[in-house]
Amino acid sequence: MDLSIVELLKTILLGVVEGLTEWLPISSTGHMILVDEFIKLDVSKSFMDMFLVVIQLGAILAVVVLNFDRLNPFSAWKNRRERRETFQLWYKVIAACLPAAVIGLLFNKYMEEHFMNAPVVASTLILYGIFFILVENYNRHRSPRIKSLENLDYRTAMVIGCFQVLALVPGTSRSGATILGGILFGASRYVAAEFTFFLAIPVMFGASLLKIVKFGWHYTGGEIMIMIVGMVTAFIVSILSIKFLLRYIKSNDFKVFGWYRIALGLVVLAYLFLAGDPTKQ
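^ that's the sequence the OP posted. Answer follows.
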């Protein structure tokens, strides 16, 4: 396929949406499904299903670039204690990934076939928006017991990993579910957000690799360009999005994202009521 200017602009828009919503707790997959329903890239359904996952590689690379020295246990700038702490961080990340990896492999196909639609996204946007407001109200007078990643214990890491399983349902938000889990079990907002970023690295690399292998390696020139443009755009926007969120939560809670989710979910439900479900047309 030849990549027209219109298709290029659509791809850039999808990259912007991915970069903005992957790290904010508002569901990147849910937003990508909704945006895709209205702009429709001129590609096959199988390619689009793969692209909506693989574009996340651009977002993940932003985390790696921003935290390369911190995540690199072999950095020449680190002493023995710092290297040991970096290895410990990776062990916690890997342990926390296990629940989602196992359950995701078992139920991913079922979820794609039955839950990748606008009504489900709208419902989960609203549901977890309410959860964010309730959790923040509950957390208002509590003092976090985990104020740094070094103090994050394996038990809490595994609990956060279990919350990540909830994100198999589109519209939930992987970052939203894990941040909620972290806050509920004693982590500060900042620690919960940071661990969520690092937890995404193996999860999303693994999911993208599986999608690429499943799709095969027979890409057209236009499809390769769509993937590159989408990932580069997601990478650039993700850097800005991550920096914004970490600054924001130093002095603010997550309620605004809860209200945003509720408002967007209600708008989508109203649209579905008036115009019908575009996924069934």
